[in-house]
Predict the 3D structure of the following.
Amino acid sequence: MKNKLFILIFLLSFPSVLYVVLTTGKHNFIHLPFYGEKELAPNKKDTIYHVVPAFKFVNQNADTITNKSFDEKIYIVNYFFTTCKTTCPKMTTELIHVQEKFAYTNGLVQILSHTVNPENDSVQVLNRYAIMVHADTKTWNFVTGDKKQLYNLAQKGYLLNMDTGNNTRDEFIHSEFFILVDKEKHIRGIYKGTNNKAVSNLIDDVKVLLAEYFIKDNAKKKFNNM
């Protein structure tokens, strides 16, 4: 049984592991950076990195989505609104591409899209939008909730410097960037979601994270079996 499980995990992770092996020495992808403020741990040896704080929203199926929904997951974040006619359609198209690229991970890689216009983007509206763009809602959540929490999380949690339409606090904020978050809730990459090259870099970086976790998990198993 253990052998079968190992083979299954290896087959799912093999594309990412192979990518790292083939690109070692060609790209500086092996150790992704950490974004945000950092500090020295009390032991004066380890570094404490910025962590995405706790949150609670509602998705397109009226299910509660929290930070714990992404425990042991790698996830990609963006902010959008359903009536956007400019950058959002392009961002959504790119995320569909990302979704297709990591379908083989069976939910290990997730997408989390927050509305910046909760007054309009109700659960029902988000549900229709998810259907319209052919999102796999097993791995892609569209969330709405308290506007203040949505904006605060964008700026302080995901470190997005959001634009306000007319520079007034009443205007909703928007960003064309994707944020890559690892299993420990650290931000590992920020990418322009309307740029094909940047999204390609995002896909490469997700592969690196998958490979790193695969290697670490196997090393831990070997150590525990010694």
The first helix runs from residue 2 to 23. The first strand starts at residue 38 and ends at 40. DSSP finds five helices and eleven strands in the chain. The two ends are 20 Å apart (CA to CA).
